[in-house]
Amino acid sequence: MTWTLHEGDALSVLTEMPDACVDAVITDPPYNSGAPTMAVRTGDTARGKYVSGDAKHTLPDFDGDQRDQRGYLAFLTMILTQCYRVTRRGGPLLVFADFRQVPVTSDALQAAGWTWRGIVPWHKPIARPAKGGFKRACEYALWATKGPVDATRNPVYLPGLYSASQPRGTNRRHITQKPDELMAGLIEVVAPGGIVLDPFAGSGSTGVAALTTGRKFVGIEISSDYATVTRERLTLAS
């Protein structure tokens, strides 16, 4: 079997996984971002925060995006601690964040034991304008490793910046879906044939990138709607 998808809570599933059973973690957790007040954080949905008002799609909402910063730090630290445990020595971690959440994400991954190596910007050619200032045209993947970088297993030289637009039309399967070409580039940090874990599988973009490049995939997704999408996409990519 080249892929496995667990439907359920990420932390609950991770605690049942054995030590050192995957080679890398690449994940896009709910950012819990864009909420300056409690009323906005608890009263708006993920769709309300991350989808433009003129969007034509009716993609399902998702839970877990209403935490304040202390709650998010505790939550992400617990997740990344379990990810650290189940990853083999030398394995890489890539975890996405927006500009607001880079600091707390870097705190969480280091508190979990990972060695922080850098930030890989993802440039979005199509991004929302900002009146009176700069367009928010980037999100970020924070790169870390479990111990030293094991370059002998995967002697690649990768770019420090990627540019790709989010999927549109029928190719858009998730509110915050990452582009397949972006994930295909980032997956190269994983040694060929390795097992990639994504505890927030969403629409399965990390898994598709893994399978189409000869790697294996283990995903976790709490939403039954998005788990169905992920299974469909992984089956097609297998």
TrEMBL record:
Record has Methyltransferase as a keyword: yes
Top-level EC class, please?
transferase
| Residue ranges occupied by any DNA methylase N-4/N-6 domain in the UniProt entry | 22-230
* InterPro entries registered for this protein in UniProt: DNA_methylase_N4/N6, DNA_methylase_N6_adenine_CS, RM_Methyltransferase, SAM-dependent_MTases_sf
Q: Name one GO cellular component term.
A: cytoplasm
Q: PANTHER family in the record, alphabetically?
A: RNA METHYLASE-RELATED (PTHR13370), TRNA (GUANINE(10)-N2)-METHYLTRANSFERASE HOMOLOG (PTHR13370:SF3)
Protein name (Swiss-Prot/TrEMBL): Methyltransferase
Native organism is Kitasatospora gansuensis
